């Protein structure tokens, strides 16, 4: 799907690519500028960097050209006041130049080449450059398999000599010792892992490593690793941080962040494995699905507890944030905590929506109790509202290019959730949530010059809204069925009687083929398995009265509990391998509890 005229130019570069591109080596000061920008904008990609030594190497010509080109391709847009058409072309040229240099060198053991590939993948997320993306993914995986990087800590690495490490990686260590080198390898591996899981999230057909095959310790001492080192080569901008990192008397070093990011991506892989296959035939029976669901819900609760324990509840320290994110890149020891607090809260909210959307899929061979649907809707809507609040805060303080850019992949499920609020019966409530939808779309539009992924997300959101509008048009003559949909509504006041638009297999991005077939049923009569009938005006009026009576009755009902409900509807019990009644009660009770506490 071509969303911008520039993409045609980029694709022509890919198609008619000459063997050698004559592009100048990126300017040293520009590369250093990009490095400090990326610490704020994309902190995970900077996980392997000791910023003091890396800046020294850049200044003294000790960084391979392919890595400089890759960094420039990924970060050039962040040091420009305005991104132009020619800037996009230059980014594409530098990405291709980096790939050509890597292929020419054939660096099967070069971890810097692996890092360069990740920078190029990062660049591709902001550009429609599928050929560079594919090549970078293939080269990266080849290096990982050749070096057996995923087995790093299963090897007796402490017995490998200093000279062997230099030869195997083709990287002059300079001031780094073996211990630091091993930590660098761990961080390169986990950066690659995070990158592949992020792509797996968008496209569940991408292959990943099985967790059981990974033998790599989590990184440690993030602050000391990034800002420690030889003070003689330390630039003024990081002098304070270097003093803290190198001073053994400094009472408490800033906490680690990357290990939690990695653990959340490991959990995300389990989430994707479940959600993407949950409603496919012959993957899970109902018992297996329910047990897995309960386990994942508990995991999300554990993650939320860790985030809230690790980071302050106040994620918006206004007085200090202006200093940390000012144009002169003045840093402090609190910067990383501020960045990761924002990033991880968005990440967690998105995973919650991602999981509970799978509760809203309608499978007529195995119907979930309306109380579970209602609970899942409530949770999704609360998380979406929280994300809009965080995005609006950042937009209002002009942090679009810093804090917001890194969380864009984690916000689309919130948009999809809010789209469902356009067509509820209560106009007052609908307006509240459609205004929130407009807020998040405004954030996307502010970012669209920097990232083609945002353009894609905007296009997909328009398509979802149109599909939802068409379904609502079909459902309008079926008002006589509204009373039967009311048990699925968040509350009688909402009147959200139309089935929600949710993906069948987790991702809204698998839209390149079978577009309509990737979503759950949105037509009321098909959702309920009731044939649509031609109704007279009198019948329609009777249906409306029945709906109003049902609303009144529902308002008088006690809050939904699951003490006397099974997991499946009675009519479909014989179609599934449902657990005994107490199993259904236990799961539904957990879901109901989560609707009050999850978000």
From TrEMBL:
<feature type="region of interest" description="Disordered">
    <location>
        <begin position="539"/>
        <end position="599"/>
    </location>
</feature>
<dbReference type="GO" id="GO:0000981">
    <property type="term" value="F:DNA-binding transcription factor activity, RNA polymerase II-specific"/>
</dbReference>
<feature type="compositionally biased region" description="Basic and acidic residues">
    <location>
        <begin position="539"/>
        <end position="558"/>
    </location>
</feature>
<dbReference type="GO" id="GO:0046872">
    <property type="term" value="F:metal ion binding"/>
</dbReference>
<keyword id="KW-0804">Transcription</keyword>
<keyword id="KW-0812">Transmembrane</keyword>
<feature type="transmembrane region" description="Helical">
    <location>
        <begin position="404"/>
        <end position="424"/>
    </location>
</feature>
<keyword id="KW-0539">Nucleus</keyword>
<feature type="compositionally biased region" description="Basic and acidic residues">
    <location>
        <begin position="570"/>
        <end position="584"/>
    </location>
</feature>
<keyword id="KW-0479">Metal-binding</keyword>
<keyword id="KW-0805">Transcription regulation</keyword>
<keyword id="KW-1133">Transmembrane helix</keyword>
<dbReference type="GO" id="GO:0005634">
    <property type="term" value="C:nucleus"/>
</dbReference>
<keyword id="KW-0472">Membrane</keyword>
<protein>
    <recommendedName>
        <fullName>Transcription factor domain-containing protein</fullName>
    </recommendedName>
</protein>
<dbReference type="InterPro" id="IPR050815">
    <property type="entry name" value="TF_fung"/>
</dbReference>
